[in-house]
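lol ok so funny story. i was supposed to be doing the assay writeup but got distracted and ended up predicting the structure for this chain instead. priorities right. anyway since i did it might as well share w the group, maybe its usefull for someone
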Amino acid sequence: MTAVDLHYESVGDGPPVVVLHGLFGAGRNWITVARALGDRYRFHLVDLRNHGASPHTATMDYTAMVADVRRLVSTLGLASFSLVGHSMGGKAAMTMALTDPTGLERVVAVDIAPVTYPDRFNEVITALKAVDLATIRRRADADRALASAIPDTPVRLFVLQNLLFEQGQPRWRLNLATLERDMANILGPLPAPADAHYDRPTWFIRGELSDRVTDEHLPLIARWFPRHVIETVIGGGHWPHAEAPAAFLAAFERALRA
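and the output, tada:
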């Protein structure tokens, strides 16, 4: 497994917190949270492989993501740190906790459980690949082109953050080919032994309006993460840090102090 050097942005001052974004996201999705708590913590906002400004690779699985994050932690010289992950990033964080937890003080998994999920995402990739970039002059053109395939406006605008213009030429910064091919790895089970466990604080912060962390997931969570806490953000969905920021920040601070 060849680890890659991940792009990251550091914000704030205090104990280190490494943040891993979700599928189709980037580290800067967490800039508002980092600035809000930057007087107490030093946040390292990471672009995972095949996302943001990090390298494109031929593979996308949690073992590889953990190796990348471990390489970044070594580069940063972090003897101990907290690890936060949203959605896909949360599954990467849980994988590290169960398979390579050296220096890992706590985990915060945002609206994700250590389970297999149905594929809701390859249709998004298909829609992005179908856009004729030669006809795109501005972001609004791409928005119109995607409107029928991705009718949920917040989701469409979130995905459109991945459209870049370089010398007037548009491109997707996501590695769509690898994400499409390895989607089963992203949505599938954690690559961890059934008898693994992580004995440090682990907080699962879920959105009230989301279906990603349900009561049926709790037995597996309890088995792998015996010191877990479940918090529900009222008014939040799958992106509770953006949809209910005040309630999320209160829960997040409790998790970071655990």
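The chain has two domains: 8-117+190-257, 122-180. Residues 62 and 92 are 5 Å apart (CA to CA).
back to the writeup now i swear
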